[in-house]
Amino acid sequence: MKGHLFSPLKVRPFRLLMTGQIFSDLGNWLDFIALNAILVFQWKTGPGEMGIFLVVFGLPWIVCGPLLAVWSDRYPRKTIMICCDIARVLLVLGLYWVDNYSLLLLLVFLKGTCGAMFDPARQGVIRSTVPTHLLKQANALSQTVLTATKVLGPSLGATLLMMTSPQTAFLVEAVGFALSACFLMFLPKTRQVVVEERNTQPFWLEFREGIGHIGTRPVLLFGLICSSIAMWMIFLIEGLGSVWTRVMGMPSTAYGTLVAVIGCGNVIGSLVVGAWRKAPPHPLGLILGSHVVFGLLTMVSGLGSLGWMPQNLVLYACVWGMVGFANPFSTVSFSTLLQTETPEHLMGRVSSVVTAVQNAAILIAPLIGAWLAEWIGVSRVFIVSGAGLILYAMIMSIRLPRLLRSTKTVPAERQHSLPM
Fold it and tell me: What digits encode the pLDDT tens for the residues 356-375?
């Protein structure tokens, strides 16, 4: 029996984990507006310093995540997540008092490092507590929480900014992380995922084991390549949205409206994917199909800013809402694929490697997109991004049937029988 969307919430550990995730994810995004306000308006930093800040903000997920995930697989994940939340309470309180740019960067980097260690542990807890037949619904709910907090976090931060000083957001954020730790304390004591002998293995051997596993699972590797290419192409235009609204002659509030519409579409899409009770297509088919939709809608936006389509805010709110709706068909499908293709004792390392690869693409793409916009214009960057997504998805779709015929995908839990 497949179960309905909210079936995973009947599993008490998952219910506690989701409650903790709400406060933790909200804390991750609450301070972004506050940090920008402090740097731009209070400290009057220039574009160079802001660029360094954005790099430091994303670097821990690329550099530290795969290394720290070795400990995420070695030690109790419940303890790791609680320690990360407590550490982030102290770090954001430090951000409340900081008055030095270099020290702020250090605290932001350390906070990101805690998040990069928290997330693989969270993935591992989902993998170990939720039955395999409910993983799709569990990932849909987790994606819904993540998306909702990405929208609500900055919005709440902006509200606090209007009502009080930017530093107040750090106090609220500290309370959020503390509440997350409190809920996670009620998780049942996690069983040991790895046998004792594994703790005596060299660190780098365990590190390479996580990377090597991806190479042994062709379907997982194919999905990682697809998602990384797509993220790179999508994030070419990530930093150009506000410029696009200006080119379209829309009011200054239009970009915020469109971002909110994307968030709402994303939440609805996550719920639809999780509630889909019929036998779904292969996850890779859903991923590639959603990328084709992304490409078409991105090209529509680009053609609109060239004057080839009506320049109407309601029309493009629908277009961008469909972009948000299509996104979970890719992200939830890949998360489910990652968990079904990875044994429990490797979950932290494999998920962190995947996150590092994807974030590397995300970090580089906006810089290239900005350069392309200077060269060929914002509208044509949208068109190039959309056409690239469609072309890549078509090429991969041709390769996909052959891949599925040549690989018999055995669930990872059947390949490994290590005790928890």
Answer: 777 777 777 777 887 888 88
